[in-house]
Each structure stands twice: as structure tokens, then as C-alpha cells.
Amino acid sequence: MLWYLGEDYDGWRFVYDDFDKSVEFLPVSEIKGSGVDISGKKPFGVCNDYAKLRVIGFQAQLESELLTYHVCTYFIGSVVINMSLVILGTANLGLDFCSLKSGNPLDISVRMPCYGFDDLRANMILQSIPVEMLYWILDLKSRQDFNGILNAYHGLLSERIKLLVPVIPREVNFLNW
């Protein structure tokens, strides 16, 4: 069965498949146009299993309940994007941007919030995600499925990234896990 997780973000929704535990962030118009039957809506859960997350590899920051986990690094054109999972009571997906040439942080000057993302600082945006998405991204990383991670966001973190930040979309290149 398919379920909506959480609220609508500018016409996009998290969709959870309880058969394979996959989660995708999709445009509502495409969901409705596909004729897929959504069973209902579930709220975001609280992510508080810190001991388990630390065993997986999450790192505590500044002796607080903030945990971070590097997912991958990739680049689009001359912009390097570091993707991480960030936990502080709720699960979040973080993207920070820097120059491929200099390695310096880039001020992305975005119009936030949009698509559930908000700017944390000049070069980083953060999106609150369902716990199910956190575990889906961890599963995809464990299989080293970079395309699967990007597909879970229906291109919003790759060829559609111009919807989030003023990055000129070009070919996406994986750098490292």
C-alpha cells in the first residue's frame, strides 16, 4: 500500500510504499496523473533512536543531541554538493554547496523555504524528512545506489535542482560516499 507521509510541500509529497519500504518525494500532479491509489496519510515520526544511529555511523556534534551522517558528495557543473542526514529530534536531509575549483563554501542565495527546504546558513539547506526516508536513504547508500538516492527525489537534487537553488543544471557526477 502507498501512503502520503507528512504535509504537501509546494505541490510535492513524500510517498511511502509499505511493501518494499521505499520512499519518494514526488510532485502531487504526477501522482494524481498516474492513477496510483494512495491509502491515506501518516504523520512524520520522531527520530530518537540515537544509540542505533551512532552504531550505523552517525556522529555527535558539539556534545549535543545533533547527529550527522555523510551520505555522498557529487557535483553539477562547477558546484560540489555534500549530502548528509542530520538528526535533532526529527530527521533532516542537508545539502551544502561549495566551489569545485576553490573548495570554498558558496552563498547560494536561495528563496526559502521551498519544497520543504529551508536555509540553515548561506551555503546549506535542510529539509525535514520522514524517518522512513532516512532509513530508505541509508538502505540505498548501503547498496551504493547513488542514482536511487537521486531518483527518490524525482530529480529535485539533480536535473531539477534549479527549482531549489540557482545552480545551472548540467550532468550530475558522483564523487564519493
Describe the structure.
With 177 residues, this protein is an alpha+beta fold. It has one domain. It is 19% helix and 41% strand. It has four helices and eleven strands; from the N terminus they run βββαβαββββββααβ. It has helices at 28-34, 50-56, 131-142, 146-152; strands at residues 2-9, 12-17, 22-27, 38-42, 59-60, 67-76, 79-88, 90-99, 117-121, 124-129, 172-176. Strands 5, 6, 7, 8, 9, 10 and 11 form a seven-stranded antiparallel beta sheet that branches. It is globular, with a radius of gyration of 16 Å. The mean pLDDT is 89.
Helix content: 10-25%
Number of domains: 1
> How many helices does DSSP assign?
4
Low-confidence stretches: none
Strand content: 35-45%
How many beta-strand elements?
Answer: 11
The backbone outline, from C-alpha atoms, is globular
Q: Largest beta sheet, briefly?
A: 7 strands, antiparallel
State the separation between the terminal residues, measured CA to CA. 32 Å
| SSE-based structural type | alpha+beta
Q: What is the gyration radius calculated from CA atoms? A: 16 Å
Helix and strand element order: EEEHEHEEEEEEHHE
- Average per-residue pLDDT, rounded, comes to 89
